[in-house]
Structure formats: C-alpha cells, structure tokens
C-alpha cells in the first residue's frame, strides 16, 4: 500500500471534517476511511467530493446481508471509484463471493472483517457463544474470506502473522485498534502501536482519534507515519 496510514474520519459534520483536512498540505494525498456514521449522514456525494480532491478512499460499511443483496450493493459501489470496501466475513462463503462478483472490473479491494477489535475472548465466548479461541476464530474467518475471493481482511495486528500463515503473504491485512504510545486505548481491546503493527506484518493501519482529535492533526499524522517507518 502506497499510503499505509489510513485516517478514520469521525466528525459530526462535513464542515468540521473539511477544516481538519485543510490542515494538510495539498500534495499530501491522504488515504481516508469513512464508516457507517458519516456515510449515513452525508452519503455518496460527500465521498465523491473527497475523491475529487484526490484522496484515496476506504468505505467501511461492513456489509452483512443475503448474498444477492450484497452483490447488488457492491455493483453500485463498484462505480464509485473507492479503493477499499468491507463486508463481514461471518456473512459466509456465498456472501463473500457475491460481494467480490459485484465488484468485478472495479478498482475496489474487498476486505472482510474478522472479529471487531472491541470484542475480546470474554465477549466471544459468553455473548456470541463461539467456542473457538479468539485467534482460531479470526484465522478461520480469514481463510474463509481468502478462499472466496476477498483481497484481504480487517484484523487486529496481533493476528496478522497467523492470518498470513493460513492465507498468503499477498493477502492484505489492514489493522484498526492502532494507538501511538502516548494515546489512550479507549474502547478498543486488541491494540498495537504503529511500529508493532508493521513488525507483525500489517499492510496498513487505521487511525482515528489520535489524529482527528489531536490539537495538530497534521503533526499527529506525521508522527504516526514516523512510528510506522521506524
């Protein structure tokens, strides 16, 4: 990935978001992520406006529905010229394959979400009633995604070596739950620093609040890039 540090936008309004982006030099073509909250509020026109500014785009919608619905949705998104889109790997083999078919011919990479970083072993066992250990569940879902055409997964940095082992070294592993040493952990349970993520084999990292809520967003971004490159 040319831009391994992906900035997760988590703003309450588009004006605040643009003000944040204006901190960056115009030639700094960021890789941006928009999730459900901002997408539901501002929709595709906002995505297009940011693509028109030259930013790369990760649309983190975590699609999870019957295969035909997911395929039709992906056929629409395929026209949007975004670089990444997520589905839930737990949607199953047929759904993952349908999503990939819907994106056929587009530039969009399909990434499958394995286990949310807000879920630990306790939640997996007692709330979701999954009998597997967390790392076994993640690698099982990653292999399912790999076998059904996904280009990569979203996972904790801690599982990346195991995922690469059961899939391929070329299978993308994009890692949320990234916190620089100086940042609060927040609501994430399986976290890593940028340097740890890279050493574990992550292909890219997703960072939100440590950048977007910093007093100087550009400097915070550059510091994280520096940590990644150490």
- Low-pLDDT regions: none
CATH class: Alpha Beta
The averaged pLDDT comes out at: 91
The name CATH uses for the topology is TIM Barrel
What is the CA-atom radius of gyration, in angstroms? 17 Å
Overall strand count:
8
Name the CATH superfamily assignment.
Aldolase class I
As a percent range, the share of helical residues equals 40-55%
Main sheet makeup: 8 strands, parallel, barrel
Tally of separate helices: 10
User: What is the spatial order of strands in the main beta sheet?
Assistant: 1-2-3-4-5-6-7-8
Strand content: 15-25%
Shape: globular
Pathway: Pyrimidine metabolism; UMP biosynthesis via de novo pathway; UMP from orotate: step 2/2
InterPro entries: Aldolase_TIM, OMPdecase, OMPdecase_AS, OMPdecase_bac, OMPdeCOase_dom, RibuloseP-bd_barrel
Protein name: Orotidine 5'-phosphate decarboxylase
Keywords: Decarboxylase, Lyase, Pyrimidine biosynthesis
């Amino acid at each position: 990935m040319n831009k391994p540090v992906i900035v997760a936008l988590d703003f309450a309004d588009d004006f605040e978001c643009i003000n944040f982006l204006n901190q960056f030099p115009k030639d700094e073509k960021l890789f941006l992520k928009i999730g459900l909250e901002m997408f539901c509020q501002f929709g595709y026109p906002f995505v297009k406006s940011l693509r028109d500014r030259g930013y790369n785009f990760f649309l983190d919608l975590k699609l999870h529905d019957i295969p035909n619905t997911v395929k039709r949705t992906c056929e629409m998104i395929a026209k949007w010229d975004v670089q990444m889109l997520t589905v839930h790997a737990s949607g199953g083999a047929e759904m993952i394959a349908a999503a990939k078919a819907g994106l056929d011919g587009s530039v969009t990479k399909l990434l499958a979400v394995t286990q949310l970083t807000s879920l630990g072993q306790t939640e997996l066992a007692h709330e979701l009633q999954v009998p597997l250990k967390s790392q076994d569940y993640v690698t099982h879902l990653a292999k399912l995604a790999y076998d059904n055409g996904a280009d990569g997964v979203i996972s904790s940095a801690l599982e990346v070596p195991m995922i690469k082992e059961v899939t391929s070294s070329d299978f993308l592993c994009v890692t949320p739950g990234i916190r620089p040493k100086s940042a609060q952990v927040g609501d994430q349970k399986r976290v890593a620093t940028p340097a740890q993520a890279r050493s574990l084999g992550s292909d890219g990292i997703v960072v939100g609040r440590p950048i977007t809520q910093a007093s100087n967003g550009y400097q915070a971004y550059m510091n994280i890039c520096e940590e990644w490159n150490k």
